[in-house]
Write a structure and sequence with these properties.
The chain is mostly beta strands. Helices cover 0% and strands 57% of the residues. It has strands at residues 2-8, 15-23, 29-35, 44-50, 56-62, 71-77, 83-90, 93-101, 107-112, 118-123, 129-134, 140-146, 152-154. Strands 1-2-3-4-5-6-7-8-9-10-11-12-13 form a 13-stranded antiparallel β-sheet, with no helix packed on it. Strand 6 (71-77) and strand 7 (83-90) form a beta hairpin.
Amino acid sequence: RVEKQTQYAADGTTVKSTFDYTRDKNGKITKKSVDSNGDGKADSSYSYKRDIFGRLTQKTYDKDNDGKADKTTDYTRDKFGRITKKVEKEGAKTTTTDIKYGEDGATTTTVTLSDGSKTETSLSKNGEKTITKKDKNGKVISTVKYDKDGKKVTT
């Protein structure tokens, strides 16, 4: 099943861009093609893969619609369906996000860049946040803490 969405320029008649959506038998989007200049040809596209429950497992972006993914994002989930890992690859650059969920409602998110540097964000069940940045060797560069209202309490 394919659906089309058209965006018009401010004059209301000139086509600005068109989006074509392809859906699977369950109605989930599997591909989105984008004609960003109104010439009737897709300039870029996104593809989506899902698990048996319909949850997103991979997203790819083909910026020039040449059939080669320019950016790929893979998702891993736990038994509850929550995302526990996200890996984004764009050329030689990879960004990995690991998410840990505590039984008490706290979460810790660690983002690791291609160079090995990390940013760890911990959110307590009370809403207090701590952000710690580390270099590629694991040395702490900075730590900032915020209270439950988002007010910075330490640096």
